[in-house]
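User: Quick sanity check before I run a bigger batch. Here is a single chain. Can you write out its predicted 3D structure?
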Amino acid sequence: MMISPEERLREFQTENNIFTKGNLSVIIQLTDMFSGKDFPLDSNDFKTKKEGQVSGLGGGNLKKVLKKHGITQQLSSEGGRTSRGSMGLMMKYVDFLNAWNAEESVDFSLVEAFWAEQVREYFRNQPFILTADTSKTIGANLDELFDQARKRQKQNPGTQYLGTVLQHLVAAKLSLVMPDGSFEIHGASVADGPTDRNGDFVINNTIIHCTTMPGALLIEKCKDNLRGGCHPVIITIFERVQTALNLAEDANLAGRVEVWDVQQFLSANVYEHSLFDEGKRNSTLSSIIDRYNEIVSVAETDPSLRIAFEAR
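Assistant: Done. Predicted structure follows.
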């Protein structure tokens, strides 16, 4: 029974561990090189004169190949040029393609598309990184984290990475200061309505709404909160605070809805719990990230939402 091209490629990928950035860098460049050659391929055609390296590999070439597939992130600065395993992988890939072509014609457009998708998958599965640089403010460190979420969201249309990160960071902070069981935590994609919630977090008579894009619907929810005798709080990114305040004022809710930016919301907590001791700042921030990752592992199915903490 003939197996599909994707099945062949996935089997080769698994057998040779082509999931790391180094191996992916090599294989997608080799595919580009091979696509213009006649079968059978000869591995000697792709060796440098001294046969120490695979010819043509490099960071610049890799960037060019990825750009053809609409991928702008940097996968590897060296492009696998100096990797000891590149030669062996190249020879195995040549044998694999030659054997495949002996059974049926290899469609390199399908092969290229497959490896490009594996590169995208690699980037999708990488955690965000919070660099806790003590030479900068906590807010500046968080801004860099949020920028990563914005970029990934732009590269994957239809996703809401920024809003999800914001909501679960708020949940992490709240869960560290509130007694266990004080409030429920839901996945970021779970709407308020189906769960009979008045907001993202309901704590006593305070309703907390997390958003990156305050709008009319949110203000209506705040009105409902107030009618129910509750106090609405909007937590958003810094550049949207004024938008939320203006919307509240236009709806005659000025002075009745709290609006906080998430950077200050988290920064204040870190300073308070570290007792304003710079030496304890990063350990406190790390505790929030640890709790965030615990929440993501339970509430979400996407492992790329994790945050790796790097102290400087």
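Strands lie at 128-132, 201-203, 206-210, 231-236, 258-261, 307-311.

User: Great, the batch can go ahead then.
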